[in-house]
Amino acid sequence: MADSPNLSQPGHRGSGQVEKSSLLGPAEIRELAARLGVAPTKKLGQNFLHDPNTIRRIVAAAGLRPDDVALEVGPGLGSLTLGLVDAVRHVHAVEIDPTLAAALPDTVSAAHLTVHPADALRVTGDRFDPAPTMLVANLPYNVAVPVVLHLLAELPTLRGGLVMVQKEVADRLTAGPGSKVYGIPSVKLAWYAEARPAGKVPPAVFWPVPNVDSGLVAFTRRTPPEGAGRAEVFAVVDAAFAQRRKTLRAALAGWAGGPDRAEQVLRAAGISPQARGEALTVGEFVAIAAAAKLSGYGGKLSPSDAEPEERLMTGEPVGEAPIRDVTP
């Protein structure tokens, strides 16, 4: 194994780009963590990426342009950040751990890197200059879906992205109508973007090694469907999947003010009252919200009414009260 590099002064090109040899491997990651007194915590969902080939694969699969501004969430010890600064004109790195945020500029000493010590679920678009155009991140498993949805809502300048998440979450984010794993995350991401699976990542490339595979999700922003606003549509989606095994006539009864009113709205939208939410496209959810708006029916479902598996996918702990409203 090669000698560990000087982590406070990694090899950079004059433009702020990073030499391939300076990407961090397992030995460098552990050395840097020990130097900082950092131990990965489950609370923050920290699993540090330490495989240079995987980093190069992510950067290549992201389809970055030289003039892009990348937004990275949870840079950790800087493995992916080192790859990103080599590919774009600016990188914004949002890190909630103050120790890691303070150390990142030493590990990645690039002039076109801005580190934001902040919670990605609370950042607003006005703090990023230049404005991000691509989201590329190894996201903490426990907040992956709400982070993606929040950033797409908050940053209209994002044209797309590539995120690494738990494989189960990746499957849900990219699922289409009729799939067993199609649900709230699938529909809400489809509101903002077209998503597709971009590969699987094995546990061995992380420290500590997680118990599950990871998946890459690529997405390209699109113009949202017309007919109803995001909040109105997402309220229908929440209601439809809160009781996903029931027909829409029954599942939307609480939202619409009764099963008869739900049926009326569904028929006005051209949707069978006997259909289930898992069969509907995002456009059909928009049609329901639009029909409800015209009829004066429809309300907002409390996140606490969501089924456990759907709450898990939106970052809320199963068996506990929801920790936040994850509908941006």
Q: Tell me the overall shape.
A: elongated
CATH evolutionary superfamily of the largest domain? Vaccinia Virus protein VP39
How do the helices and strands follow one another from N- to C-terminus? HEHEHEHEEHEHHEEEHHHHHH
Structure summary, number of beta strands: 9
- The helix-and-strand class reads alpha/beta
Count of DSSP H/I helices: 13
**Arithmetic mean of pLDDT:** 86
Determine and state the CATH class of the largest domain.
Answer: Alpha Beta
Helix share of residues? 25-40%
Write down the CATH topology of the largest domain.
Answer: Rossmann fold
Rg on CA atoms, Å: 21 Å
Give your account of this protein's structure.
By secondary structure, this protein is α/β, with parallel strands linked by helices. The chain has 2 domains: 202 residues, Rossmann fold (3-Layer(aba) Sandwich), CATH 3.40.50; 84 residues, Helicase, Ruva Protein, domain 3 (Orthogonal Bundle), CATH 1.10.8.100. It contains 13 helices and 9 strands. α11 crosses α12. The longest helix has 14 residues. The N terminus and C terminus are likely disordered.
In short:
With 328 residues, the chain is of the alpha/beta class. It is built from 13 helices and nine strands.
